[in-house]
């Protein structure tokens, strides 16, 4: 278990576009484990690799964790890409581990489809709805150097 330091607001890595993962090797698998350990240790429900200082196109999330803290169902997306979105949008108050104690209202698609590679190297498609879709979009934004405050209409500290 390796808990990494969370990159905080103001670090320029949060504004950079992530690099595509070319090969899923032991180094990538170790990075994913570190990301999950760090996310859970900080009571997060999502984390992008840039948030621990690594500019790779990887996100992890676990929406079950907010429903029942003891129950974990981690999801790993490598090189994810949104392939479709609903017409319907929802407004949600978001926070971010890289912006402690800062919250903002963000309008997101209610439902999305994401194509990604899993840890076994297989291309997959995932559908997210409601909070899962919000978390997916929030973390995918990080891969493009976009943070939730860039999309927020109302900021609270």
Helix count from the secondary structure assignment = 4
Q: What strand order characterises the main sheet?
A: 1-2-3-6-7
**Envelope shape:** globular
Order of helices and strands: HEEHEEEEEHHE
Using only C-alpha atoms, the radius of gyration works out to 15 Å
Instruction: Give the number of domains.
Output: 1
Q: Which CATH architecture is right?
A: Alpha-Beta Complex
The CATH class name reads Alpha Beta
Q: Which segments are poorly predicted (pLDDT under 50) over 5 or more consecutive residues?
A: none
CATH superfamily: Peptide deformylase
Q: Specify the biggest β-sheet.
A: 5 strands, antiparallel
CATH topology: Peptide Deformylase
Instruction: Give the proportion of residues in helices.
Output: 10-25%
How many DSSP E strands? 8
Describe what this molecule looks like in 3D.
The protein has helices at residues 26-41, 64-67, 131-143, 148-151, and strands spanning 46-48, 58-61, 75-85, 89-96, 99-109, 111-117, 123-129, 152-156. The protein has 157 residues and is an alpha+beta fold. It has a single domain, classed as Peptide Deformylase, CATH 3.90.45. It has a five-stranded antiparallel sheet, with helices on both faces. The protein has a three-stranded antiparallel sheet with strand order 4-5-8. The longest helix has 16 residues, at 26-41. The termini are far apart. 34% of the residues are buried. The mean pLDDT is 94.
Describe the protein's topology.
Layout: H1 26-41, E1 46-48, E2 58-61, H2 64-67, E3 75-85, E4 89-96, E5 99-109, E6 111-117, E7 123-129, H3 131-143, H4 148-151, E8 152-156
Antiparallel strand pairs: 1-2, 2-3, 3-6, 4-5, 5-8, 6-7
């Amino acid at each position: 278990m390796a808990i990494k330091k969370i990159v905080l607001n103001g670090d320029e890595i949060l504004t950079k576009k992530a690099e595509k993962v070319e090969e899923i090797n032991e180094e990538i698998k170790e990075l994913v484990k570190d990301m999950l350990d760090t996310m859970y240790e900080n009571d997060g429900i999502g984390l992008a690799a840039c948030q621990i200082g690594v500019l790779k196109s990887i996100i992890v999330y676990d929406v079950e964790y907010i429903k029942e803290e003891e129950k974990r169902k981690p999801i790993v997306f490598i090189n994810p890409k949104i392939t479709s979105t609903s017409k319907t949008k929802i407004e949600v108050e978001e926070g971010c581990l890289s912006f402690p104690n800062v919250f903002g209202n963000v309008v997101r698609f209610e439902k999305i489809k994401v194509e990604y590679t899993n840890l076994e190297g297989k291309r997959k498609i995932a559908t997210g709805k409601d909070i899962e879709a919000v978390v997916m979009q929030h973390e995918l934004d990080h891969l493009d150097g976009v943070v939730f405050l860039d999309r927020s209409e109302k900021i609270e500290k």
